[in-house]
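Fill in residues.
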């Protein structure tokens, strides 16, 4: 919020608006946007070295721990799936498979 290069630029911030209701069901709460905008506006001009900023940073980091973990897990699963897929593709061999002790026929050259 205090980066001079961003001053005067329109910014788009996409954040989830789902929260759990009393029954644990995900529901939309568009009021989250207003709270987040108010919080961001409060950061304008705030000293990043101040105790107030550091306290807010810790609170927000703690608040987002669970959600960051879910996204990190999903990222890791996707990465492993892609690695397995790539690894499987490198195992493709064309032609006759050689058994143990047989030499490959490189005379096709």
């Amino acid at each position: 919020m205090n980066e001079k290069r961003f001053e005067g630029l329109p910014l788009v911030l996409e954040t989830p608006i789902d929260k759990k209701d009393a029954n644990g069901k995900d529901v939309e709460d568009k009021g989250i946007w207003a709270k987040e905008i108010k919080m961001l506006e409060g950061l304008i001009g705030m000293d990043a070295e101040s105790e107030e900023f550091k306290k807010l940073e810790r609170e927000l980091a703690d608040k987002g721990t669970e959600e960051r973990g879910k996204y990190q897990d999903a990222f890791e699963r996707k990465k492993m799936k892609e690695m397995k897929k790539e690894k499987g593709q490198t195992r493709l061999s064309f032609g006759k498979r050689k058994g143990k002790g047989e030499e490959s026929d490189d005379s096709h050259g």
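The longest helix spans residues 65-90.
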